[in-house]
Amino acid sequence: MADSPVTQMKIVKGDYGYVLEDVPHLVDYIADLPNYPNPLRSNPAYSVVKQYFVHVDDTVPQKIVVHKDSPRGTHFRRAGPRQKVYFESDEVHACIVTCGGLCPGLNTVIREIVCGLYHMYGVTRILGIDGGYRGFYSRNTVTLTPKVVNDIHKRGGTILGTSRGGHDTSKIVDSIQDRGINQVYIIGGDGTQRGAAVIFEEIRRRGLKVAVAGIPKTIDNDIPVIDRSFGFDTAVEEAQRAINAAHVESESIENGIGLVKLMGRYSGFIAMYATLASRDVDCCLIPESPFYLEGSGGLYEFIEKRLKENGHMVIVIAEGAGQELLSESLQSMNQQDASGNKLLQDVGLWISQKIKDYFAKQNKLPINLKYIDPTYMIRAIPGNASDNVYCTLLAQSAVHGAMAGYTGFVSGLVNGRQTYIPFNRITEKQNQVVITDRMWARLLSSTNQPSFLNPKALTEAKKKEEEFPNQLDREDSIKGPLVTNNNVLLT
């Protein structure tokens, strides 16, 4: 996808260090755009809701842990329905596209966008783009109605299909323009949202009245700013099944080792939270925390120690961990997939064989290792209760934002509140586990494993902490809303 000039971020400054990183609006580049009363005024479902419309000045702070002299800091526009909308219901022609890898909750987001448009705003023309970005110009579309999407949340995957890369910005916008589409809902990870940002820029350059809204998706939870991405809670829950199987296998045989590889290309959140939730894991290895195999304080030494103490152990490793230890002579070390992601070696198979070889060579502690890789099983399941509620909030917030004329934004949860976040904040960097923070310390305390950090690595980790201090504020809490009996999201 070709790059185009990026619109300068809308910044609004106020007293006491207040900074609003605002999202674009259609009126920014279309003069004299008419607005209309929000049809929710006459919607019986919302007639009993007090103060249902979000005030124009409502914002949500990015940082909530402050001192008495702290400036008010960065804020984002609060999501929700506005009193005025910039589309009439019969004027709207919306489309939905899913891109990138699978993730629990994709079908729920599709369903709730369709039902939100239809039931809240009376929109009846909604298309599903088949096969990701390329589907705009090379595949058929699917007509979406509440009846079509009624039960799709009970299925994994996406009814619209998906793909990585291979998209052409001009052709996509040509297709949007030719079909008369004026609302585009894009569900995908950081690569997908980078593509969405470029599509928005081209739409703006052409002066089209088209709202572009993103719903950020990544099972790895590596999207910055937001509290968590949908599907993450389900992934952690499902990972427990694999860890439990590894634990049963390992404790059923002498010197048993259960090794589980979980998703986490660059960020070890699934591995970390699954380990904390499980209580059966003896060692967790993630991309952010370097480890070494041999010598004093190394992984081999720890495995031997734990087997002598307990007679068995469970190891969880994220797919991106230890990549620097794998042979650089392997062909795929510098290859990328269609989304530009580095192709990783199977660290699970590699480390399994390394552990087997080491103890076979030592010839003093016979081990029995079982390797479990549940990667595609986890991402192919439907969302759990918590994620389904979260997907509903994300989808409805995106619909409210597009109807209100906002564009070039993603819908996301920040400090427990639904917000609209500019594309560039979502794509500027990846969220990672901060290994000098309390959450990682809690894991080390829970597993009683060594940190494997040598003095040089520890110095580098502390330096990174100083460069990205805001991550620490978010690391100190579990990144997943809980569903109560009243379906209230708690953080």
TrEMBL record:
Catalytic reaction(s) noted: beta-D-fructose 6-phosphate + ATP = beta-D-fructose 1,6-bisphosphate + ADP + H(+)
Protein name, per record: ATP-dependent 6-phosphofructokinase
Subunit annotation: Homotetramer.
Species per Swiss-Prot/TrEMBL record: Cannabis sativa (Hemp)
InterPro entries: ATP_PFK, PFKA, Phosphofructokinase_dom, PKF_sf, PyroP-dep_PFK_TP0108
List of residues binding substrate: T218, I219, D220, M263, G264, R265, E319, Y376, M377, I378, R379
Active site (UniProt): D220
Domain Phosphofructokinase positions: 95-400
Pfam families associated with the record: PFK
Native organism taxonomy: Eukaryota, Viridiplantae, Streptophyta, Embryophyta, Tracheophyta
The organism's place on the tree of life at top rank: Eukaryota
